[in-house]
Design a protein that fits this description.
Helices cover 78% and strands 0% of the residues. The protein is an all-alpha fold. This is Gluconate:H+ symporter.
Length: 447
């Protein structure tokens, strides 16, 4: 019954948003409250869950989204994105732009959380799209596939890091195995699959598209790259220091503060205000007007993300995730496949990769105590499952849809299908490693 209610709720979202043309935020509210009541929550608890879901979701992403939008708008209007796009195209050519974007996303995605990375690369993607008249989804999907895979598979991202701790896995081995699994997943879901989507017509969010500037008006190469990617550099340095310094040392509080995505984005916006604003001849008033336009661009998006968080919280409060997990736990499937399936089904129903991963891990922990399964591979199997079929109840779906200005149908064809390919290829990679590691272990032991 729980699964039927969730399916009906998702179908109602699709009907209201696409056929009924109802504002997505209102559609979430219209679906979330009846779904909570149908799942057995008292009316007061439903309303409390809606408020908590809205607050928690916006509290975790609003600062990053708003600051990322400000930085992205300034990167676009200052010509920094145009300069970076020109450098990339000169270095690799338009024929290899997908692979260039994929590698760039891979590098950016290691230290950056997904939302931060997404907002950072959007101006770059759109600049390439408009300057060289290439399809937006064709150009952008490989880069975003890289960001998504790293967010779901590899430490130091939140869910994989938590899973490593829960299963007492080895961070280094998980990271190494994760790279082996992540590369084929990104290649298949990114450049290869995106080639089938060249026909999708996308008019990206206007706020991140600016008129091409004359060569003499563009910021320099070093300034463009450093100002745009400062958050990546800061996080890379901070994470490197955290890895080599003692956890309780005198620098630990300062490093933890600097590792926060909101703090990093504030620092990046502050630097860009002068490096891409004042130093380029813009007045402070002009820079602030640019930031104000960025806020208007993302206001509705924030509400939609909050609506997705409200639905997720109602489903969590009702115990839907635990009910689904309990129903699958007695299937007798191999542990790695069961962990992937649990995380995948919870992800599809609840919309949160982190909730899906942690819920599946809680169910699999007792099984792991009586199993010889490699804990590092279990982390990756659950991580792959937690990315399965992102759709209308996931904030990542709406980020992609709104910024690329796509229909729900085309978002399902591109974003949702890409996430599903990533998840399935990731599982296959984990199963191949599970088969291969015992064969190569004796040889490695002799080295």
């Amino acid at each position: 019954m729980t699964l039927l209610i969730i399916v009906l709720a998702v179908l109602a979202l699709i009907v209201l948003s696409s056929w009924g043309k109802v504002n997505a935020f209102l559609a979430f509210l219209l679906v979330t409250i009846p779904a909570g009541l149908a799942l057995g929550l008292p009316p007061a608890q439903v309303l409390a869950a809606v408020q908590k879901g809205l607050g928690d979701t916006l509290g975790s992403v609003a600062l990053v989204v708003v600051l990322g939008a400000m930085l992205g708008k300034l990167v676009a209007e200052s010509g920094a994105a145009q300069r970076i796009a020109a450098v990339l195209m000169q270095a690799f050519g338009s024929k290899n732009i997908q692979w260039t974007m994929m590698v760039t996303g891979f590098i950016i995605g290691i230290p950056l959380f997904y939302n931060v990375g997404f907002l950072l690369v959007i101006p770059l993607i759109f600049s390439v799209v408009y300057q060289y008249r290439l399809p937006a989804v064709y150009v952008g999907l490989p880069m975003l596939a890289s960001l998504s895979v790293l967010h779901g598979f590899l430490p130091p991202h939140p869910a994989p890091t938590a899973l490593v701790a829960l299963f007492h896995a080895n961070v280094g081995l998980t990271f190494g195995y994760g790279l082996l699994v992540a590369v084929p997943a990104v290649v298949v879901a990114g450049p290869l699959y995106a080639r089938t989507l060249r026909g999708i017509v996308s008019a990206p969010l206007a706020g991140f598209v600016s008129e091409a500037l004359a060569e003499s008006a563009l910021p320099g190469r070093v300034n463009s790259f450093l100002s745009s990617l400062l958050s990546v550099l800061v996080l890379a340095v901070v994470l490197g220091l955290q890895a080599v310094l003692p956890p309780g040392g005198p620098l630990a509080p300062a490093l933890a503060f600097l590792a926060d995505p909101g703090v990093v984005m504030m620092l990046s916006v502050g630097v860009a205000t002068f490096s891409l604003g004042r130093s380029q001849g813009k007045s402070m008033t002009s820079v602030m007007e640019t930031y104000g336009e960025a806020l208007r661009d993302v206001a509705l998006l924030l509400l939609i993300i909050g609506g997705a968080g409200a639905l997720k919280e109602v489903l969590v409060e009702s115990g839907a995730g635990q009910a689904i997990a309990a129903g699958l736990n007695g299937t007798g499937l191999p542990p790695l496949l069961l962990g992937w399936l649990l995380a995948g089904l919870i992800r599809v129903c609840l919309g949160s990769a982190t909730v899906a991963g942690l819920t599946a891990a809680g169910v699999m922990l007792p099984t792991m105590a009586h199993s010889t399964v490699n804990p590092n591979l279990m982390v990756l199997a659950i991580g792959a499952g937690s990315l399965l079929f992102s759709h209308l109840n996931d904030s990542g779906f709406w980020l992609f849809k709104q910024y690329f200005n796509l229909s729900i149908r085309d978002t399902l064809r591109s974003w949702s299908a890409m996430e599903t390919i990533v998840s399935v290829v990731g599982l296959l990679g984990v199963l191949v490693l599970d088969w291969a590691l015992p064969l190569v272990a004796p040889a490695l032991a002799r080295l």
